[in-house]
Amino acid sequence: MTISGASAAAGVSAPAKAETSGPMTRETYRGLFAYPPTPFTPDLALDEEALRSNCRKLIRIGVDGIVVGGTTGEFYTLTEKEHHRIAEIVREETRGTGVAGVIGATGLNTPEVIRRVSAAMELRLNAALTMQPFYSTLTKKELLEFWRQVSTACPKIGLIVYHFEGVKQEYTPDIFRQLASLPNVLGSKEGHFNYKAWLALQTASPLVHMSATDAGWLVALHRAKAPGVGSVNLTLMPHVMRRTLALCGEGKYEEAERAFERFTEFCVKVRSGTGRPFLFPQELGNWEEYGGAARGKALAEAFGFLKVGPPRPPSIPVPAEMQKRLRGYIERVYPDLIPPTDFAEQVPAGTRLWPRVRP
Q1: 114 near 154, Cβ under 8 Å?
Q2: What's the chain's average pLDDT?
Q3: Which of 76, 101, 186, 312 is the 20 to 30 Å CA partner of 117?
Q4: How far apart are CA 277 and CA 250, in angstroms?
């Protein structure tokens, strides 16, 4: 199946940098978007220095966008002041780089969402990733009215619908077709594991639908000519992602699957393997007692590409002793998945990770 307007193909050099001074559009919502955790210091303050360093590394290795303040970014722990400061930093770090700056802007009610999206618009970020107020499921009429109000109140910023499986809210192809009438609604981040549902959206409307499930799907997505992918896993093993996508760009999909195999195997064991003793590494003991934010940050620290620090409450940090065992397990079983300490410096300037069609 070929997706209309997508730009993935084999044998591609890096394109010229896209303009990022204005709102993102449906034409520019393309490529590989990184979803890094929000870094905190040991005393749980916002670590601005680490945030800047992480952004610079991601820009250097060739991402097309950086999305902060989403689920991985622990948006539910951020104060309004911190949310605004994160937006400021990401805008400062992405300005003039050709990399889009995007911030999560989720709230419990419509005015709160509009306030956060408006702040991002005033700072001239390129897009906001947001969802409907999520405590109660909305009717179709309520859902469409919510998006109309946000679009009208915040016309000078791209809006990305966060379609997240952890929140009960149906988004059908028909709903997306109706949302396409709102000029600054770009499409969606599909945060679920239903490949057929993602595929069905690709020709349903003029909107752009990017999957955020690259573990196990990365090669299949590129082969289906997806517009791009949203990735948390890039922040763990960027060198594996780069090698895999380079092979995809050459049309060597079977070889790309082999290059990605160990990556997927690790994710299955350490994430999906929780509670399954035949998969789960015994030396990690009671790893399943810690939540997704805690495990995600422990993994990021273990691989060492980004500095992320501990999670905030209500998450309970993975103990230092268990983090040490996690690193030991990776070094013993998956040493090839640990990125070189100077990986960002090894990547040629101007690189783009997601392969495109030559203009």
Answers
A1: yes
A2: 90
A3: 312
A4: 39
Q: How far apart are CA 300 and CA 308, in angstroms?
A: 7
Q: How many CB atoms lie within 10 A of CB 187?
A: 23
Long-range CB pairs of 209-213, under 8 A, 24+ apart, other chains included: 209/176, 210/29, 210/33, 212/35
d(CA 16, CA 359): 10
Map residue 144 onto helix, strand or coil. Answer: helix
Percent of the chain scored above 90 by pLDDT? 82
Pairing of strands 65-68, 228-231: unpaired
Of the candidates 8, 24, 213, the residue with the CA atom closest to the CA atom of residue 101: 24
Which residue, among 119, 47, 58, has the nearest Cα to 83 in the 3D structure? 119
Contact by Cβ (8 Å): 249, 10 = yes
The two tokens of residue 327 are: 């690193």
- Rounded to whole angstroms, the Cα distance separating 83 from 316 reads 22
Phi, psi of 135 (to 5 degrees): -70, -40
**pTM reported for the whole predicted model:** 0.91
d(CA 12, CA 357): 6
Over residues 206-210, the mean pLDDT reads 97
Q: What is the mean pLDDT of residues 323-351?
A: 94
Beta bridge partners of 100: 65
Instruction: Establish how many alpha carbons lie within 13 A of residue 219's alpha carbon, considering only the half-sphere containing its beta carbon.
Output: 21
Does residue 332 contact residue 207 with C-beta atoms inside 8 Å?
no
Residue numbers annotated as active site = 162, 189
Whether pLDDT at 158 is above 80: yes
Domains of the chain in sequence order: 31-253 (3.20.20.70), 256-337 (no CATH)
Question: What's at 90, amino acid-wise?
Answer: V
Confidence of residue 273 (pLDDT cuts 50, 70, 90): low
> Do 354 and 15 form a contact (C-beta atoms < 8 A)?
no
CA distance 6 to 345: 30
